[in-house]
Amino acid sequence: MPEETETFEAELSVDQVKECMMELPDNARTILSLYLLEGYDHEEISQILNITNSTSRSQYARARKKLQDKIKEKIELTQV
Hints:
This protein has 80 residues and is an all-alpha fold.
């Protein structure tokens, strides 16, 4: 199943995206970092964090949504 992607008109700096990530709860930030930045798959993440594969996937999906929402907020603030 392909993942949905959203595009944003405004650009944020890497530091601004990092700020958004730092605002996430620890578990959400950990899952995102392992998957997006470190390149681990969900099976590996589930072993590292001692959670099920499905838990890794669902936590990643929620974390990604939270990050998207925070980025949207940041964009809206910079456009005002």
